[in-house]
Design a protein that fits this description.
The chain has two domains: about 1-35; about 50-180, Roll (PH-domain like). Helices cover about 35% and strands about 30% of the residues. The protein has helices at about 1-35, 150-155, 160-180, and strands spanning about 55-65, 85-90, 95-100, 105, 110-115, 120, 125, 130-135, 140-150. It has a seven-stranded antiparallel β-sheet. A hairpin with a 2-residue loop joins strand 6 and strand 7 (about 125).
Length: about 180
């Protein structure tokens, strides 16, 4: 009996030690990545009841935020690295991203554009399947990726639903540039 116990106990203990070391290594790596991008605090989104009247709104899957042009350089600082479901609301004040992992607002003055893409932050979907919003935060130009998921997608399809958001955000960026000049 004792020999049988020792036969499986040693491998199980070794496996547990390896798993704990792997988890600790991932935790330290995530914390190091969070310090890589020195971001100022995000602009908080108002409570859902206090959101301004939306031009567009809808449910989405938040894929993550990357340094603009570097679709694999995920930004994890300030909670931007957590994939989650989200509710998007585009208003005259900017884009509000409401999510359990941390809500935030991208003010209209920080918006730089929007486009279709196939992937972001290591998440790849069919062509034109990701709505990418480019915005300025602190010294970094960031890309944030979403995939719309609500009834507008069922009615129009992903590409057309994303195109509607791209047109609206692009118009807001142009109008803001003209107003600022």
């Amino acid at each position: 009996m004792r020999a049988a116990l020792q036969e499986w106990l040693v491998p199980v203990v070794l496996l547990l030690v390896v798993l704990v070391l792997a988890y600790v290594g991932m935790w330290f790596g995530w914390r190091r990545r969070g310090r890589k991008h020195d971001l100022p605090p995000l602009v908080p989104a108002p409570a859902v009841a206090d959101l301004p009247p939306p031009k567009l709104s809808g449910g989405a899957r938040y894929f993550g935020t990357t340094v603009s042009g570097e679709w694999l350089d995920r930004v994890v600082a300030r909670g931007l690295g957590a994939r989650s479901t989200a509710r998007l609301s585009l208003s005259a004040e900017g884009l509000d991203v409401i999510r359990l992992a941390g809500s935030f607002r991208i003010p209209v003055g920080a918006l730089r554009g929007a486009r279709h893409d196939q992937g972001i932050a290591g998440k790849v979907v069919p062509p034109h399947g990701v709505l990418v919003v480019t915005w300025q935060h602190g010294d970094l130009l960031l890309d944030t990726g979403f995939r719309l998921t609500d009834e507008t997608v069922a009615d129009k399809g992903v590409t057309e639903a994303h195109s509607q958001w791209i047109r609206s955000i692009s118009k807001m960026v142009r109008d803001n540039k003209e107003h600022s000049a």
